[in-house]
């Protein structure tokens, strides 16, 4: 369940004065990118929820034995689009600078119906 939530396939929501519920993202199927996104989230969380660069995250994946190929960039971008990873804006004048990031945990969405 944690991996499905971290990759954006499910979300938690809660109506006022009711227990939390889970809903599936009907337009999304769990695939290789989702699987790697959940693994990327796991290694970032295991390292104090921060990273200095993409290369550092790739190193952590290698240390844990998680195999990936071309999907790494897509998985990290997916986490950014979901709001799970927050990174500073890229400095296009200095393309050689690393781009650090921070893990942002999923939240329970309020439902007011």
Q: How do the strands and helices of this protein lay out in sequence?
A:
Blueprint: H1 2-6, E1 10-15, E2 21-24, H2 32-46, E3 50-51, H3 54-64, H4 71-82, E4 85-87, E5 101-103, E6 109-111
Parallel strand pairs: 1-6
Antiparallel strand pairs: 1-2, 3-5, 4-5
Helix pairs in contact: 2-3, 2-4
Explain the overall architecture.
This protein has a three-stranded mixed beta sheet. Strands 3-5-4 form a three-stranded antiparallel beta sheet. By secondary structure, it is α+β, with helices and mostly antiparallel strands. The protein has a domain at 28-91 and 99-105: Arc Repressor Mutant, subunit A (Orthogonal Bundle), CATH 1.10.10. A hairpin with a 5-residue loop joins strand 1 (10-15) and strand 2. The longest helix is centred in the middle third of the chain and has 15 residues, at 32-46. The protein is globular, with a radius of gyration of 15 Å. It has helices at 2-6, 32-46, 54-64, 71-82; strands at 10-15, 21-24, 50-51, 85-87, 101-103, 109-111. Helix 2 crosses helix 3 (54-64) and helix 2 packs across helix 4 (71-82). 38% of the residues lie in helices and 19% in strands.
């Amino acid at each position: 369940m944690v991996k499905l939530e971290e990759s954006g396939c499910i979300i938690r929501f809660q109506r006022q004065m009711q227990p939390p519920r889970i809903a599936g993202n009907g337009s999304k199927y769990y695939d290789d990118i989702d699987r790697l996104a959940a693994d990327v989230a796991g290694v970032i969380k295991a390292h104090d929820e921060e990273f200095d660069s993409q290369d550092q995250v790739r190193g952590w994946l290698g240390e844990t034995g998680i195999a990936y190929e071309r999907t790494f960039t897509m998985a990290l971008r997916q986490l950014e689009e979901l709001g799970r990873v927050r990174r500073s804006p890229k400095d296009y004048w200095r393309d050689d600078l690393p781009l650090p990031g921070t893990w942002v945990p999923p939240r329970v969405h309020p439902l007011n119906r």
